[in-house]
Structure formats: C-alpha cells, structure tokens
C-alpha cells in the first residue's frame, strides 16, 4: 500500500471512485460549514485548535502570488502562508455541518499527506473519513469527494499544518456541499483527489490520466531510460519514485510493448538500497540499454547522496544484466566508471551506450559540464565492463546550458545526431545538433530545439527491429505544475516518435505509425470545408486530429484550432499565415502551466499545411508536416472541455480535409 493512501480511504475506494449519479445529488440536505469561503474576512465560524499557522491574518484578499493568480473564488481565501509563513504549524477546525452526498473545496499549498492536509471528520466518533493534501503549488485546484456513505451525519473539517520549511503551508477556499460538482458557469468540475483513485489500477477512472501515454499508476516518473528493442518487444524504463508523486530516491520503472504503443507494466527493474537517513536521496539515475548478443545490458548512473554518505563519489557508472528481460543483476566490475574525468564540476550522469558502426566497438556518452559550458564525455569498450576514456565528444559555448543531461548520439539518414537536455535560466529545453562524427568527436552543423512546446525533456532514442529511429521523452519539465499530484501520481512520457532529418537539415519527428492502431471508432471527417468564425468539428479528449489547411485558398490572417474546448477554457493552437508562426497557447487550458510556446512551419509545395495532433486527457502533441513539433501538458478544469473547433480571424479558412478519430487506451 502506498504510504499516502490512508486505510480509511482504501476501505471506501470503490464508493469514492464511482461517478456521482443524479440520485447521489439528492438525499439528506447538506448544510455546509459556517463561512465556507472566508468571505467575512476573518476566521468567523472556524476555531484555531492549536499553533500559529492559522489566524485572522491568514484570511487574505491577495489575488496573485509569485507564479500567477491563485484562482480562488470570491474576495477572500485562507492562505496558509500569510499568518506566519512556512515554519508555522497549527490546526484549524470548521463548524459542524451535515454531510450531503458530495463535498468539494479548493485546495493549494504543499504536498505532505501525513503532515499537511484537509480532513473530513465525523463528529460522533472523531473518525477521519477522507483526507487531501496540496500539490506544491499556490494556485487552487478543485477536489471533489463522494460523501454519500456519510450523508446526513454531523461532520466537520480539520485543516492540519504540521510541516515546517519549504511548502510548509496549506491554502483552502470555497467549501461546497450544495451542487459541489458544478461551477458557477454551470460546467462540471473534473473530479480530482487522492480519495478518488481506485486501488485496483483502473487507468480510465482518473479524468486527467492520459490514456495512450505511459504514466505511473501512483508515484512519480521523469526521464525515460533504457529504450531498446529486445526479445521481440519494445522496452521502456523510467526514472521512478514509487513512494510519492514527487522526485525522490530514483528507481527504474519498467514496461514493455509489442508495438511501441500499447504497454504492459512490469516489476520495477532497478531499486536503490534502503535510505541511510530519512532524507537520503541516493538512487539509480538515468541510463540506457543494449542487446549484447541476447543479454539485456543496462548502464546507469549510481547517484550517492553525499549529505547522507560523507566522502562518497556522487556519480559513478554501473552496469546490470538480464537474460529474461525482467530481473537485473549488477556486474562484479561495478562501478565500471568510478568517477568523472577532469572538467566535470557541473555533473557526470546519464550514460548512453551504442555500438559504433565506424569501428565496431561499444561507445558510451555521458552528460557533463564545467565552468558554465555543457559538454559530453566519451568512453569506449570491447566488453561493456572495461571502459577507456576517449575525451570530450562535444562542448557548448556557454549559451546553451552549463550542464548537458541525457546525451544521445546516433546515425540518421546519412548524418549524425546528438540529443542533449539543458536547463537555461530556469527553462528546460530538449536540444539537438545534426552534424558529423569521426569516432571520437562530434562536429555540429545544425542546432535546434527538438520540440518548441514546454513539455519535452530528457529525450532518448533507439533503433527498432524495422530500422526506425524511435524516441520518447519526459512529457513535463522541472518547472511544470503537477495537478495530478492531488491524485497521487505525476509525470508522463510522450508517445513514441519516429525521427528523421528534415529537408532543411534540422531534426524532425512524427508519431510512430502504430498510433493508428489505437483508433476506437469511426472518424468524423469533412472535406472541402470553408470556415468563417468558429466551427466545431467534434468532441474528444482522447483523439487524433489530422487536418489539411489550404493556405492558398485561405484569407484569414490567423487560423486557430481550439482543443479541450468549452465555454470557459481551451488550449489554442494558432497559425499566423503571414509569418509561419505556430503557437500553442495554454493560458486558458485549466490547472496547468500558463504560457505560449512557438515554432515556425511552412506549408508543403502545394500550399497545404498538414497538422497531426494527438489529444489526450491532459496533453496535446502537435506534429506539423515538416517535422516541427509542439508538446504541452494541459489539465482541464471541466468535464465538458472536450470540443475540437476551428476558427478563422480576419477572413476565412479553407479546410481541404479534417479527420477526428477517437483513440482508445494503450494499457493492457
């Protein structure tokens, strides 16, 4: 049992996971607590049980924090930071009220289900019925609880802050027992909350869980690792923390697929040793996999937290092997690289191993950096056990990151490609370079960003049994909002993509062809359609949209695709017909990161702009015909936000063809 799922919640998981029916909205009349949104401007109706975290001064009218709007309701809300900041602790209790069939509230602040939470408590026996922590974000998200099992009983809310330090506070607003799932605009809130997650791995129950992208059922993932075609199957490993929906001691999660689209979860492949101290974050960092004549061999960074292990080398390279594709045994020679070479002060991690076609030897590239310049270190071996340092493969000039993570070097379409991930001024970027390689040194000739969206990082590629160069990446970044943390999980991988060198010499990508096999019904198709104003093609929050925009016959200055759209929100994909700028705007997408991501793309020789858009419950991936891509995680607030619409501004749009196909689940 995951440690953040309390026994009380587990016992009622089946009830809590059920969709609320109209009948569930009837029954004993709920009363709600006094002052449910703190609109009195103080704690009227609430009692400070202990501590100094909560006081009248915690009731705030602040509309914005350092990252944007709170998205609270009304003029006031309970900002747990305002009274005495993060080191304060305490407990707040609401007045007694009558439970209805459901209850909802806005919650924000830190994530810690044991020390920082809102709980529903039954008066007659003090039993805690449900509990919810925050998501390490000041912006509010709506949690909905099915309370039908306790309808008519006398209950109250406890707000507990027993955490000090960073994110050591909780925010609360707008407790509702009347129409708890409906917003003031009449739309239905997507039902979030840890209590709504079934214990039986129902991947369809969560309204924000992608249905054809790899996610952890509970816990955290980031970098994809060990991508390889082995034993007739595609293998995907991922950086994984199973004990919390936050980064922690890294494991390697493992899944396999026969088609690089449908996934089957396998046991965790690599596990770090037990923590030496409660804060020990030692773990198995990123790496790669190769098929060594039938032995699946993985190379990874062994990270040792020197705060818990003084004097240890922080980052070394280790090898483990498997003959069944599931159980891995570290080799006796570990660590095969005992420490970084000189000039690696910024880090030394993420080994990517490949067989070099130039000399037949095993080669390994490792991410590094020094004095503000990212770099890639290079090694060679004949047996995957003894490694010879061969020097710096490539180095930046200081403008593209001080540390290059997750390097990947491979031949493609007669050229060589280097992938590397960087964090520049707080912005996470997945970069590439196309150039030449002589067996020791890579010379870049064309550089670029692999995906212009905000959520593509730590990309890794491999060659499958058909000779395709396939790639996936962490569909997030280190600065992203993670509202699914409220549901006990965070992180997703992109769909597998096929890489190619574009006509202009840059690196392009398209969805792996097997995505078409996820079709779950007939498409909605239109041809030769003239659009003026806004026009709806159809609905779908797990769908594929393929569109051909005839720009030669289009008079509009801006063409917009509205995805995950409703009357209150939408993710907008805009194309400027004059400049060729393609922009993905998440400013009104829901709970996620608010930004505008751009790239440039041009129509084909016949004047048609071809777009292939993958829409999942909390993501949008855009592929233009020339290989440019834009990817973003989006988290709609409302169940009705599933429309797919076209809009033309300043003229009309001629659609040569548009096809919206529903897609099914990739989980088996």
Q: What does this protein structure show overall?
A:
There is one protein chain. The two termini are 22 Å apart. The chain has 668 residues and is mostly beta strands. Strands 35, 36, 37, 38, 39, 40, 41, 42, 43 and 44 form a ten-stranded antiparallel beta sheet that branches. It is 1% helix and 47% strand. It is built from two helices and 44 strands. The model is unreliable at 1-26 (pLDDT under 50). It folds into three domains: 7-196, Sandwich (Jelly Rolls); 219-515, Tachylectin-2, Chain A; 519-662, Exo-inulinase, domain 1 (Jelly Rolls, Sandwich). Strand 33 (497-501) and strand 34 form a beta hairpin.
Number of helices: 2
CATH class category label of the largest domain:
Mainly Beta
Question: What summary fits the major beta sheet?
Answer: 10 strands, antiparallel
How big a fraction of the residues is strand? over 45%
Average predicted confidence as pLDDT: 94
How many structural domains does the protein architecture include?
3
**Which CATH architecture of the largest domain?**
5 Propeller
CATH topology of the largest domain: Tachylectin-2, Chain A
Q: What level of helicity do the residues show? A: under 10%
Question: What's the gist of this structure?
Answer:
The protein has 668 residues and is mainly β. It has 3 domains: 7-196, Jelly Rolls, CATH 2.60.120.260; 219-515, Glycosyl hydrolase domain, family 43 (Tachylectin-2, Chain A, 5 Propeller); 519-662, Jelly Rolls, CATH 2.60.120.
List its salient traits.
single chain; 668 residues; mainly beta; Jelly Rolls; Tachylectin-2, Chain A; 10-stranded antiparallel sheet; 2 helices; 44 strands; disordered N terminus
